[in-house]
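Protein Entry — a single chain follows
Fields — amino acid sequence, structure tokens
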Amino acid sequence: MWRRFSDDIYRFAIVGQGRLLAWASDVADRLTDAEVEFFDHDDRDEAWDWISEGIAA
């Protein structure tokens, strides 16, 4: 999927729980051109808001 759509993905939110996902999000942010951010499961609405900020009107 990433190979096919990577030019069209500018922001990627990872929502979950645990330090491993937070760490993986940080690694992905450094290895890709997209902005990658980790959000705790309870903050999923905040994740959607963050994704929406990156959508051009």
Q: What stands out?
A: The mean pLDDT is 86. Strands lie at 11-16, 35-40. Helices lie at 2-5, 19-31, 44-53.
